[in-house]
Amino acid sequence: MLQNIPLYDICSLSDINQDDILISSFAPYLDTHKNLFATHRHTFYHLVLFTAGAGTHTIDFESFVVKPGQIYFMIPGQVHSWGFEGVTDGYIINFSTSFIQSFLLQHGYLDNFSFFSGNLADAVINLPAETYAAIKPLFENILTEVTNPGTSAADMIRLLMLQIFIRVNRVTAISAVNNNSSYNQTLLKNFKNLIEHHYTDIRLPKDYAAMLYITPNHLNAVCKDMMGIPAGEMIRNRVMLEAKRMLTNPQLSISEISLKLNFSDNSYFTKFFKKLEDTTPEEFRKKLLYDHGKQQL
Question: Which Pfam families match (predicted)?
């Protein structure tokens, strides 16, 4: 029988019944959770800093080469697998939204960081040497708070995590300032947020442009300038990503996925999928589950 792609919460990965935070050196974490090499999903935020290793890791069906000094960030719901070569080590932090939010007055604080947007171009970062040298001790200090907690250890962990986020964000923010105007950057971010909330029910760029109080031509120009693709393609790509995620669940029929994504009928959904992916949803699912079965062997 085909098995569903696993969905893990923090509690299922921790032996101390902790559902808000899990912090570890990466090598022992891998040794304990060998099942995580195969395709799986998270209900939590997840970040890893590699200090050693090679091979690949895959996020939302896009593969990345593992490099020491690389940090990656994932948000809940993304599909993930690992294909490491040799000894891989570093640091891992899994945390819930509430773990950080309980410490902050500003709601949605994590949305300020582009690497928590779900956009893979922002989520996998090869750190400059000076930034890597600055944040590696922060991870070590977090581990110290876990293994030998002092007074207000949880708050110290939160402070150290925020330092990591801010230091990494400074690297990505400098790149953004150097390449784009702040106005267009904000406009693109708002467009992405609108897509995230409306991709199942709003498909036309002109409708998003109206919500942003700009013309469709302006929106298209910004997307082409900053992303290299038109606005309509950004919308279609988000629909396609969700279709792929849903196809990891064999208990959902193609018709059910088509309905959830608001297609008028199954035939239209299949044509849409094949045009973008050059394969049918059924063929994509068959290959995905076959690859997942090989990973488990």
Answer: AraC_binding, HTH_18
